[in-house]
Every structure is written in C-alpha cells, then in structure tokens.
Amino acid sequence: MPYKDKEMQRASNRRHYQSNKASIIAKVKLHKESLTARNYEYVNALKDNPCTDCSKKFPATIMHFDHLEDNKRGNIADMTKSGYSIKTIQEEIDKCELVCETCHAYRTNNRLKQGIQYNLPQN
Q1: Local structure of 67: helix, strand or coil
Q2: Which residues pair with 63 in a beta bridge?
Q3: pLDDT digits (tens, 9 = 90+) for 68-92
Q4: Which of 7, 42, 65, 122 could bond to 96 as cystine, CB 3.0-4.6 Å?
Q5: Torsional class of 119: left (φ above 0), alpha (ψ -120 to 50), beta (otherwise)
C-alpha cells in the first residue's frame, strides 16, 4: 500500500527488500540473463554477413562493429552483455560497419597513424 509520506514509503521498500533479498536478487539475475541471451542472439544474427572490407564471411566471434565517427555511446559487446534494449543496441550498430577482426585492426592502426582517436564518453 502506498504511503503519502515519501520517507515512510522508502522505509517500507527497504524493509520489503531486506525481507525478500534472496528472491529479489535471483529474479533480477534471471531477468538480466534473459536480456543478455536475447541481445547475443540479435547481435550474432547481424554478424552473419561478410566483412565490409575483405568480403569474407567469418564466425560471429571474429566479426566486429567498427564505429565510423566519434559519437560512440559504448562498445556493442559491452552493451550486449549489460542488458541494453535492442533499440539502443541497434542505434549504436547504425553508427558502425561490420568488419572482420583483421580488417578492424588494420583500420584502427591506420586511424592511429593519422592521429584519429575515438574516445568513449566519461561516466
């Protein structure tokens, strides 16, 4: 039952959490695992395409999303395992090209030689 007093509501929420901590943690863990599995399935399906540079097809673990500009919100791999929404992951993928890890390393090396550095926003 909601309280009119916000402090009483917070105290009630804390008591509820302490009384049910183990089951709440288990539910959250299960939910995060299902989001992560969903995200991996989505991203790996997108990686079932050839490299933009060399046109060769590799397993999903070899394919990388290479950011083209310095408007990077985060790494696709980190977003995938952190339970981000499909919409957010897709918005980040739209800023990228799919390349194999060899071509990605080559691109990154060329950028570094040209003095181009892409920095992630600081949290």
Answers
A1: strand
A2: 100
A3: 887 888 899 999 999 899 999 999 9
A4: 65
A5: beta
- Strands 63-67 vs 96-100: parallel, antiparallel or unpaired: antiparallel
Q: Are residues 104 and 51 in contact, defined by beta-carbon separation less than 8 angstroms?
A: no
User: Is 35 in contact with 23 (CB distance < 8 Å)?
Assistant: no
Distances (CA, A) of 25 to 18, 91, 103: 11, 30, 41
Length of the chain: 123
Query: For the chain, what are the domain ranges?
Result: 6-113
DSSP lists the bridge partners of residue 64 as 99
Distance separating alpha carbons of residues 63 and 20, to the nearest angstrom: 42
- The single residue listed with the structure tokens 């920095």 is 119
